[in-house]
């Protein structure tokens, strides 16, 4: 089905142009990706979940900054309204459809994953790649290091 | 999000990206990617389908064990629906919304200008 996959870069370009923007967005592009081999078996590793959704009950959600939310209490909703997702064909009322805390807990109970980091992290989607690279990504790394995270599962909406 | 994955990976934290924008993630380049060919919004599976959601997340974390080289994309076995019409509607531009989109763009540029004047240099990725 690969030939059917949506070309979001082209769609976005056309959508921006239709809104009267004259400079096309330049998507981040690299020839190679970095690679780190996990140092521990998955069943002994601490995993962090990283999402583009913001906590619904958090005052700073609109300030577009990195937020860490404790995982003990499963959020019943998340703030996704200002993210780009398919608002015609689906919805985000089921948090587990984009924030896999329950699924990871299930896999921990099975022994597949070691443990969950004490918080999940929200990272704002940014037009400015510089903001992401110089501010948000280092903040997420600092949170991962603080929480002694071995592995990160990043789940953009 | 792909940029965050790259930054973590470059700093010794192994990553898996689980998402539905195949072209965007692959264009950026990430170490491990599980592509879910669904409408944007439900990368972990269809809403309330707990069995599918667990299967997808299981497949995602298994990539930590199985992937040996960077820029590896795996795919889930699931289809959103037999009918493929959902692929046509996202960010669609046609005669029915052309005038409205132009107006929306003008309003947005005014907001952006006001935000910049107030010292806010942050803006969402793709405004909807």
Key attributes of the depicted protein:
heterodimer; A: about 160 residues; alpha/beta; 5-stranded mixed beta sheet; two-stranded antiparallel ribbon; 7 strands; about 25% helix; globular; B: about 130 residues; 3-stranded parallel beta sheet; 3 strands; about 40% helix; about 10% strand; flat
Q: Please indicate the count of domains of chain A.
A: 1
Query: Main sheet of chain B?
Result: 3 strands, parallel
Strand order of the largest sheet of chain B: 1-2-3
Outline of chain B, from the CA principal axes? flat
- CA radius of gyration of chain A is 17 Å
Strand content of chain B: 5-15%
Number of strands of chain A: 7
For the largest interface, the chains and their residue counts are:
A-B, 88 and 82 residues
**Proportion of residues in β-strands of chain A:** 15-25%
Structural class of chain A: alpha/beta
Distance between the termini of chain B: 18 Å
Helix content of chain A: 10-25%
Model regions low in confidence, pLDDT < 50 over at least 5 residues of chain A: none
Helix-strand makeup class of chain B: alpha/beta
Task: Determine the mean pLDDT of chain A.
Answer: 91
| Helix-strand topology string of chain A | HEEEEHEEHE
The total domain count of chain B is 2
Question: What is the topological layout?
Answer:
The complex is a heterodimer of chains A (157) and B (128).
Chain A: H1 8-18, E1 46-51, E2 54-55, E3 67-70, E4 78-79, H2 101-109, E5 115-116, E6 119-122, H3 129-146, E7 151-155
Parallel strand pairs in A: 1-5, 1-6, 1-7
Antiparallel strand pairs in A: 2-4, 3-6
Chain B: H1 2-10, E1 14-19, H2 22-28, E2 32-35, H3 50-66, E3 72-75, H4 98-117
């Amino acid at each position: 089905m690969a030939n059917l996959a949506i070309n979001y870069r082209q769609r976005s370009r056309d959508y921006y142009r239709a809104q009267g923007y004259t400079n096309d967005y330049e998507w981040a592009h690299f020839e190679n990706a970095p690679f780190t081999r996990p140092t521990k078996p998955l069943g002994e590793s601490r995993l962090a979940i990283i999402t583009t959704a913001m906590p619904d009950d958090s005052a700073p959600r609109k300030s577009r900054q990195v937020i860490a939310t404790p995982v003990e209490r499963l959020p019943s909703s998340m703030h996704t309204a200002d993210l780009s997702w398919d608002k015609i064909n689906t919805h985000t009322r089921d948090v587990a459809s984009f924030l896999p805390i329950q699924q990871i807990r299930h896999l921990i109970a099975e022994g597949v994953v070691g443990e969950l980091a004490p918080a999940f992290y929200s990272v704002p989607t940014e037009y400015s790649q510089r903001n992401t690279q110089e501010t948000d990504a280092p903040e997420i790394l600092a949170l991962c290091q603080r929480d002694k995270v071995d592995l990160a599962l990043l789940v953009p909406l | 999000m792909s940029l965050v994955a790259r930054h973590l990976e470059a700093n010794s934290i192994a990553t898996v990206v689980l998402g539905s924008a195949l072209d965007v993630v692959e264009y950026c380049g990430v170490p491990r990617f599980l592509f879910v060919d669904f409408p944007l919004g439900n990368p972990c599976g269809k809403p309330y389908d707990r069995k599918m959601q667990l299967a997808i997340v299981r497949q995602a974390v298994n990539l930590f064990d199985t992937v040996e080289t960077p820029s590896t994309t795996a795919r889930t076995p699931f289809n959103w629906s037999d009918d493929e019409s959902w692929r046509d509607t996202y960010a669609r531009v046609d005669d029915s919304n052309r005038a409205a989109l132009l107006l929306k763009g003008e309003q947005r540029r005014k907001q952006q200008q006001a935000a910049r004047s107030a010292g806010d240099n942050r803006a969402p990725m793709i405004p909807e």
